[in-house]
Specification:
Elements: E1 5-9, E2 15-19, E3 26-29, E4 35-38, E5 49-54, E6 60-64, E7 67-72, E8 75-80, E9 91-96, E10 102-106, E11 111-114, E12 120-123
Antiparallel strand pairs: 1-2, 2-3, 3-4, 5-6, 6-7, 7-8, 9-10, 10-11, 11-12
Length: about 150
C-alpha cells in the first residue's frame, strides 16, 4: 500500500492519521488500536487523500483530489469543494496562521484562504504568486506570512 502522508496528532487525542491516496481514504488509528476510515461514502470529498493536518483547535483538515474536509472528533463537519468556492479542487498542501485562517495550496488554482467565519479568498499568479501550483505551504509567524 502506498502511504504518502502520516500525521501524528499529539495536541489533543494522540491519534495517528494516514493519508492513503487510494480507495482506503483517510485512516485514523487511536491509541487503543481502533481504526476508523473516512471515505467518500462517509462524506469525504474523495477517497484519494493527499494530506492530513491538525489545526490549532484540534480539528483535522484532509486534502483530497476533490477538495478538503474538516474533521472534528469523529465527524466530518465541513467540506470545502466547488460548492463552497474552491475553483481548483486538487489540494496539495495546507497550513494555518495564528488567527486560525486555513490556507489550501492547489494544483493550478493558487492558494485559497478560508477564515474561521467561512470567507474564502483566492490568491493566484495574477496576485503575485510565482506559480499557481502550490506544492508546500508554511506559516512564518515571525514575518506573519505564508
Amino acid at each position: 500500500m502506498f502511504i504518502p502522508g502520516v500525521l501524528l496528532c499529539e495536541k489533543f487525542f494522540w491519534r495517528l492519521w494516514i493519508s492513503t491516496y487510494s480507495e482506503k481514504g483517510l485512516i485514523r488509528v487511536s491509541p487503543d488500536g481502533k481504526i476508523k476510515r473516512y471515505r467518500r461514502a462517509d462524506g469525504m470529498p474523495d477517497d484519494k487523500v493527499r494530506l492530513a493536518m491538525e489545526l490549532s483547535n484540534g480539528d483535522i483538515v484532509a486534502g483530497t483530489n476533490s477538495g478538503a474536509a474538516i474533521i472534528r472528533g469523529e465527524k466530518i463537519v465541513r467540506v470545502l469543494d466547488g460548492r463552497s468556492g474552491l475553483a481548483n479542487l486538487t489540494i496539495l498542501s495546507a497550513c494555518e496562521d495564528e488567527d486560525g485562517t486555513l490556507y489550501l495550496g492547489t494544483d493550478g488554482g493558487g492558494i485559497f484562504s478560508v477564515a474561521r467565519g467561512g470567507v474564502m479568498k483566492n490568491f493566484t499568479k495574477a496576485d503575485g504568486l510565482g506559480a499557481d501550483v502550490i506544492l508546500r505551504l508554511l506559516y512564518d509567524g515571525k514575518h506573519n506570512g505564508i
